[in-house]
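REQUEST
  id: r-88c1
  op: predict_structure
  target: Major facilitator superfamily (MFS) profile domain-containing protein
  payload:
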Amino acid sequence: MCLFGLIKVIFVVSVYYGNFCVFLSVIFVCQVYMACQSMLIVLIGSTSSSSSSSVSDQDEGSQQDSIVTEWLLVHQQSYKVSLAGSLFFVGLLLGNVVFGPLSDRVGRRPVYLTGLFLEVIFGYVTAFSPSYEVFAGSRLLVGLMNGGIGLVCFVLTQEYVGKSYWAMTGTLTSMTFAVGIALFGALGYFIRPWRSLALVSNSTGVLCFLLTLPESPRWLYSQGQTERAEEVLRFMAQRNGSVVSNLRLHRVGVAKAGNHSNQRAGILQLMVHPILRLRTIVLMYVWYCCSLVYYGLTLGAGDSSGSRYVNVALYGLVELPAFPLCMFFINRPAGRRKSMAAFLCLAGSACLCTIFIPENSSGSLALLGKLMVSAAFNIVYVYTSELYPTVIRNAGLGVCCMSCRVGGILAPFIPFMRSVSSSLPFIVFCLSGFSAGFLGLLLPETLHKPSVDTLDQLSPSLSRVLQTQECWDVFADETLCGSSEQIQEELEVVDQG
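RESPONSE
  id: r-88c1
  status: 200
  body:
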């Protein structure tokens, strides 16, 4: 009941005192910064100037200043542009592996601040790179930090608010990343020199670093630091213009595994446990395909017909309708599984149709494919967290995220297939979407199902335990509907418990 008490405190403080809007806004601005870093290679490394001499490119002056023209990355050297993009995603993979466990050990805030500071430093190294080798190395290091703070930011958006708002904050995080892509396209239109563009887009990180964030109260409490958790909760309420009195958490030590399931839970269980093994294999492939199609379409925006700046902005803005779409369907009878599979198949269908129409008219269908895969990507985040028990959820998400980064590493090379055939990239995206959609149907539905905490609860024979957990979830949601007079009562109950 002590953990339940902490959850109730966070419900009361976050819901009734502004939902920590100030701190979430800082994280959302950080998402815009990370989106700019992710899309940097699209504008500063566009190779269209070396492969064509279209009038639109001449008018934009896009071939006058880029890493392609400065270091002559043409013909046999043109692969280095895609290599720099892939190195960024290699860094993302390593960042997820290194910073995830590190944030569980030393805290969210130290890892966030350290990673953001180093990413800003390496971002400036990118802007002032004297050679391609330094540029490529800096992109690897920027990706390393980007992957680390991106994971920590997502966790903080969940741990700053009550559980009923996790889906909303997670969706808003993805939406601000999409807005960041659109803003980067507009920024690139007004700032053409590639070094100036890298310099300005990196400066947003300085603002994020100066805006401080508190430590996660959930993490502090899980480490037995109840006094610091209380201080953070009071600080958050004060920043939102309210003062919470009598806020006192029950004193406990560091959480310990109290049963055999927790003791044997580990990353190896993802392959050893028969139920988790199937789920992990399927989810890893789904995450890989989502990332491949998502980043493949996005990074190919610069090589599409028309203005590359408009294309980049459109590929960001087209994601915005995807989030209310997926939020609508996953809470309907279709559920998570069928909605995810449907959006993946629709993305594959849109890419398939682009093969049979003229290249200069395929942009709309490519945008539709980006819209569908964005919805699927958002659903798979929620779906994956629900498929894994609490004791192994972080390990499961980490493995899926690693698979996702493999797709991101390969994505920059997919648009390069246009040199062989203009339709070849869309064939790859089509097959990926259809195969992931059909394979995802092997997973169980989680809509209206109680959450699972231990490995033993994966067994159908323990439905009574799950029903008890479901009753708590319903009770916790009902506490969000209390009146202002009930707030103090809730806190007093926690103080007594």
